[in-house]
Every structure is written in C-alpha cells, then in structure tokens.
Design goal:
Order of helices and strands: EEEHEEEEEEEHE
Helix content: under 10%
Number of helices: 2
Distance between the termini: 39 Å
Radius of gyration: 14 Å
C-alpha cells in the first residue's frame, strides 16, 4: 500500500560515514519523489557509477552525518557538485542550482537509500541522454 503522506527515507554511503535523509511522498521509492520519477543517466559520471537518481529541492534533503568525510568533485562546466565519501568512495548524492528556478537541487542516488531495490527502480526509470550534453 502506497501513501501520499510525507515519508522520510534514509540513506548512506557504503561505510556509513556519510548519512542523509530525504523527504518523499509515500513509501514506494520509485514514485515517492514526484512526476520526474527515477532518472538513469548515461553521462560519463552516472553511467560509470550506475546512479539512479531522484531530484529534490534543498529543503527536502538533510545531511545527517559525515560532512567532514565528504570531498567534492566537479567536471565539465563545474555546475554540479559530486561529493563522495573519502573513506569508501561512494557518491550518495550530488547538488547544484537549477538554471531555470535558481533553486538548489539535490540528486539523490536511490541505490544509496535504505531498502531500495535496483531492479524495481530500473524498471520504472526515465533514461536521460547526458552523454550528449
């Protein structure tokens, strides 16, 4: 049963040094984050990392632990920050500014969210051709 009530989903990097919370609507990860749903991108970063992302505004994302362990990586035009855990190397989220609204957005890697099922998420993913940018 899926609910439309706000639900807090928790996640982390592999070693648990970096932990975060993200608010969605309902308990089903594939549909909890609005119309855009799950995004699978083939850019050089996401394609190699296998990220399955949802985008949320900054006030729906909280870094619960591990700020000191995060290192930032940027490539290309440097518009998106790709922080990763300096202990285990996993990148559980990215962030940047939406060029249309000017709002800070987080791209949360659903593979790093507790209880996620990659097979289910992939079945409903929207594929984005980031390699063509």
């Amino acid at each position: 049963m899926t609910t439309t009530e706000p639900t807090t989903h928790r996640g982390s990097c592999h070693c648990g040094a970096v932990r975060f919370s993200v608010e969605g609507q309902g308990s089903a990860l594939g549909t909890a984050f609005g119309d855009a749903g799950v995004l699978a991108c083939n850019c050089s970063m996401c394609g190699r990392a296998g990220s399955l992302m949802v985008f949320v505004v900054a006030d729906r994302f909280t870094l619960d632990a591990g700020e000191a362990q995060l290192r930032d990586y940027q490539f290309g035009k440097g518009h998106i920050h790709h922080p990763f855990c300096s202990v285990c190397g996993i990148k559980p989220f990215a962030h940047g500014v939406d060029p249309e609204s000017g709002a800070t957005m987080y791209a949360v890697n659903l593979r790093c969210v507790d209880g996620s099922d990659a097979q289910v998420l992939l079945a409903d993913a929207n594929w984005y051709d980031g390699a063509s940018l």
